[in-house]
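1st attempt posting a full record on here, be nice pls
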Amino acid sequence: MRVDVARFVQETGLDLADVALTVSWTSSTTDMTEAAPAVKFDPNGMAIVDTTLVGERLSGTLSLRSTISLVRPSIGREVGVAMVPGSVLADHVQRVVLESMSSMFPVHEIDFSYTRLSPTASWHLETSTELTAPFYGTFRVLINKRDRELRTAVARGIKDRRQQALLDELQAGIAALLLELALHLRAELSEREEWPPDSVGDVLARTVAASPLHVVAPPSAVDLADLRTQVSGAVRNLGRGRVFQ
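the predicted structure (as tokens):
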């Protein structure tokens, strides 16, 4: 991180030697929070944090928080100047989704013939329109046990070309369904600028924001084919499903 030293002193009333850069991170699904040791700024306003995050402790969405904080008491300063160690003068949060579309859902195998689902369907995505509900707890993929090829493809391990093609098709179908669901909930999603992290509203809003889909209303029967083409293109632009070779 680099700061403008002269502007920093002018706007905060502090010396750069009084503050340090801290970086911490939190995993949404494990709730584990860790931090790197604080790093002081050099006279040119530069501070570099070099740390390693343990992959086994991270999943879901990773929130990286960088802060510039006071590290020693500020005595004799003017009114309005930070004095208490730990005071945060500036912070920035960056969120990174660690899991792909195909791995972000719990997957369960059931025989569709014993359910309300079509016994000849290969998969079904359980969804929710409760936007504040936890996404990972309400969305899950059901795989029909009768589709032995897809069951084998979903299992862990090295995939052959056909198995990878089946996974690509599943991934694209899930992504397309999420985009269409977000489209139908567009009015509700626009009611808040931010939804709770990893809530249904948060994931749907991020899915739409990352896609080039510009449809603003559910299509009529005449426009349905055009929408499906737009969704298909948006899914591929998101990196989901089969890519052009």
